[in-house]
Request: fold
Amino acid sequence: LPDVVGKQLFESFKDPTAAKSLEIKQFDESTARAKSFMVSQAANGQWQIPSHGNYPADAESQLKAVAETLVDLKVMGIASTVATDHGLYGVVDPEKAQVGSTGVGTLVALQDAKGNDLMKLIVGKEVAGATNQRFVRKPTEEVVYVTAIDMTKLPTEFDKWIEKDLLKISTWDVSRVLVKDYVLLPTQTGGMALLPRMDAELSYASDKGEWKLENMLLHTRQGPTPSTLGPLEELNKQKLDDLRNALGDVKIVDVVRKPSGLGGSLQISKDKLTEEQKDALRDFGFFPNPRPDGTLDIYGTNGEVIVDTKEGVEYVLRFGDIAPQADLSSASGSDSNQDKAKSDQDQVKVNRYLFVMTQLAPSVLTPPELTPEPAGPAAEPKPDEGKKDDAKKGDDAKSEEKKDDKPAVVDPQQAERERIRKENERKMSEYRDKKTKAENRVKELNARFADWYYVVSEDVYKKIRLVRSDIVKEASTAKDEGFGVDAFRKLEEEGLKPAAK
Reply:
């Protein structure tokens, strides 16, 4: 071998900005196939993740950082020159591995806009006793090199390459929450029936940090029954604040592209929903429910939460079934116990499918109340035609004397009418501007949400999807007055003593 130590592994790769796609492949024992994670720039300039249905990626600066990491790789040493050592150093090509293969490496490739390889490298095991040094091999060569490469800078976790904040809600902008607690149950005909249990509407005043129960319906066999807070009950502010904060912390764990024909709306025509689409919905815990107008609403098996913001946007969240564990493995290839423990911990995380859409919030975008203008003075009768000429002559004469006239007296009623008119115009202008901004925001968000089922954390779901026992708690005054749960338990334990005679 010529003396390559100290030289670059890929001498023709000099410009990191030329990289327009990154692909990382690892061998999956369960499928006996190479598993690929890819980020690339489409022809329209949009960064996307082909391995996740071309989901939009927030990747331009990140891919540049990856390319800068790989452009300066230098040969630090030669470990082997024979193919039989590839398993020993962990540089077996994942594209050629088979079930039972050992020492399979991670294939890393950068390509330019035309699909030409800028670099392609199989990354193997860590070098013992060295920090961020690994055994590597070019797929077309048998030589195993040693180079310095930090694999933590090459993540394959989906959520590391996207805008993770799903709703983009500021928690202080939340003004109203409607919790719809229902379940979907199978029917004898093979369909699903919507069984409502509770609808609770709450408003939030951010300036005071206070919640208010606006309306609550409990659904029983007798039908919907209005419910209020009892004398010994109060809202559970902690739970409601946790809900509000969770809305600002809904992070995307994974995504699945919806079947074609299912757009951003949670409604669809009966004629347009195929059996294949129905099956796809059921797989994720969503079912069509008939509406009076003949269309179908797409409901989640685990309830719904509607959120209004001060800016006039209404979010509709419908929750489906528990999602299979997303693949959170990375390309780090570390064999340390710490990494293994973290991997084991990741495996027990539970996630859930979510449908989300937005629309205008009627509770916020209400037209302003306008002040009625006071009635003006009665119109003066028109002068007779015969007197018009005389009046005109008189006006002409007066015009000559204008220089000596005093300023006209302002009519107070007319001034008040003008003030009210301008104030009403200001209110309407603000309303129209707010509505236009809300419409644009709804359009922007729905364009983002339209094509996807989202996978979110079960922990966040549990904070958002509340039931009555979460929303209402025993009032703090109940304990002070001896009516709390503890007081009743004490009576139960001691027994009721007979009254003194």
Q: What stands out?
A: The longest strand covers residues 192-205.
